[in-house]
Amino acid sequence: MKQSESFSNKTLSLEVHDGTDDISIYWKGKSTEREPGIFLNPILSEALERGLKENKKIIMDFQQLEFMNSSTVTPVAKMLEKGKENKNKITIFYSRGKKWQELSFSALRVFETGDNNIIIIGN
To answer: How do 57-61 and 90-94 pair as beta strands?
Structure first.
């Protein structure tokens, strides 16, 4: 991955910024694909691997995302599950003001860890 890279699939775009201490993934647009994992899994897997290898925290920011269907929750949940197993440090930011985000991300709180390796924060 380069310092900063953009990935797009129809109405969804991810901007990945590889910083000194973290890898930030900014989600924008709408995720409406029936099988979003085809697009998302390679990007999320690479971030997990790089995070472990380079001891970087992964930040996923969904605050600017307009919509995410229930099919999109699966690749995100799988990433959190794998990150939990591998001891990745992952922080998710979402917008509490968007009802659909509050519902989706409050359900993902089951992945939060007592050691704060995985944190889900609503702003």
So the answer is: parallel
C-alpha torsion sign, points 34, 39, 45, 48? negative
Residue with tokens 């029936």, as numbered in its chain: 34
Structure tokens at 23: 């890898």
| Token representation of residue 109 | 């709180």
Inter-residue contact 30 to 66 (CB < 8 Å): yes
pTM, 2 dp: 0.92
Q: Which residue, 67, 14, 5, 19, is CA-closest to 41?
A: 14
- Rounded Cα distance between 51 and 85, Å, is 13
* Average pLDDT value over all residues in the chain: 94
